[in-house]
């Protein structure tokens, strides 16, 4: 009964994982058989300045994205967990970007932040401010990409928070009111502890999402789909997934790309392990 799943797991997951691990120790261009080179790919990674810059950019993207999306998703969930008219409309409106195509969303975002005819610069000019280069500015490109990514994904995290909020017993709020607690006190001492498990889930999913960021950066920083041009300006938006894709599919350095993939896996594994360890200190478990 489980043989279809086992076959799928062995062929498409286990085999590909083991193959990529072997390729990470090989020189492989997809045109010729892989040649074993040992730790050469990993030694090159250590000495590769673009790899370290992509790792730094990924960390920067994560630091901006995770808390911003988590806080905004929680605020929206609390606001949309009230008894208000038109509640379903607002919930759907916030979730529409989640189900929209990344390509469509990013082309619209590119039109907004285009330095020549974008809406963002038009608004700045109306307020007497200097227009910005946005995606062509090394200091602004990551924040702009984070802004678009948050707008695209916050609705999904909002729904997760909504599920957690609806599981908080109403009698706890009533007891808090009897004790004289206000709105802020109820949120701090009742809501936050009881949705800590949901918050932990959102943090883990958001972190994984940032390390897998690729499509929005490829579309918004690439030049007419040129994968080698993406990640600019001056590699300021080069992240690990984009660098992996460039090395593997643009330059046919599949062995080197596999090494990057395994480094990425190790980083995500360590971060998730730390998060799991820390959750025991701040996640509330109902007894």
Automatic annotation (TrEMBL):
Membrane association type: Multi-pass membrane protein
Residue stretches making up the ABC transmembrane type-1 domain: 55-275
Keyword Transmembrane helix: yes
Keywords: Cell membrane, Membrane, Transmembrane, Transmembrane helix, Transport
Family, similarity comment: Belongs to the binding-protein-dependent transport system permease family.
Organism listed in the record: Exobacillus caeni
SUPFAM superfamilies in the cross-refs: MetI-like
One BP annotation, GO: transmembrane transport
Cellular component, GO, one term: plasma membrane
Record localization: Cell membrane
Domain of life from the UniProt record: Bacteria
Name of the protein: Sugar ABC transporter permease
